[in-house]
Amino acid sequence: MDPAALDPELATRVRAWLAEERVDASYLAFVARHVDADDAGWRWCCNSSCDPCVTRLERVVDRLRAALAERAG
What we know:
Blueprint lengths: L7 H13 L7 H7 L19 H19 L1
Helix pairs in contact: 1-3, 2-3
């Protein structure tokens, strides 16, 4: 998903979810781009203490996917 296509209400929610995960709000673009991406291509943790860890980002991506599905439902 193009980050610019994310409506303001959902963008606000994504920023809040990022904050809950202690991830900088600048990762909103990452979350938006990965909401439609194939999980196998990016969901892996290298266990090298990356900051932010992909596991924190994937939780936000999953929450956005759920919110989008709920709206479409």
